[in-house]
Amino acid sequence: MANSRQLWAKSGPDRLLFAADIAGTLVFAIEGAMAAVNGKLDLIGIVVLAFCTALGGGLVRDILLGALPPAALRDWRYPAIPIVAAVLVFFLDRYVRAIPAAIQVLDAAGLALFAVAGTVKARLHKMNALVAIMLGTITAVGGGTIRDVLLNQIPNVLRIEVYATAALVGSACMLAARKLRVPSNAAAAIGGGVCFLLRILGIWRHWNLPRALGQ
Amino acid sequence: MANSRQLWAKSGPDRLLFAADIAGTLVFAIEGAMAAVNGKLDLIGIVVLAFCTALGGGLVRDILLGALPPAALRDWRYPAIPIVAAVLVFFLDRYVRAIPAAIQVLDAAGLALFAVAGTVKARLHKMNALVAIMLGTITAVGGGTIRDVLLNQIPNVLRIEVYATAALVGSACMLAARKLRVPSNAAAAIGGGVCFLLRILGIWRHWNLPRALGQ
Amino acid sequence: MANSRQLWAKSGPDRLLFAADIAGTLVFAIEGAMAAVNGKLDLIGIVVLAFCTALGGGLVRDILLGALPPAALRDWRYPAIPIVAAVLVFFLDRYVRAIPAAIQVLDAAGLALFAVAGTVKARLHKMNALVAIMLGTITAVGGGTIRDVLLNQIPNVLRIEVYATAALVGSACMLAARKLRVPSNAAAAIGGGVCFLLRILGIWRHWNLPRALGQ
Question: Which of A73, A89, A151 sits opposite B64 (nearest CB)?
Answer without folding.
Answer: A73
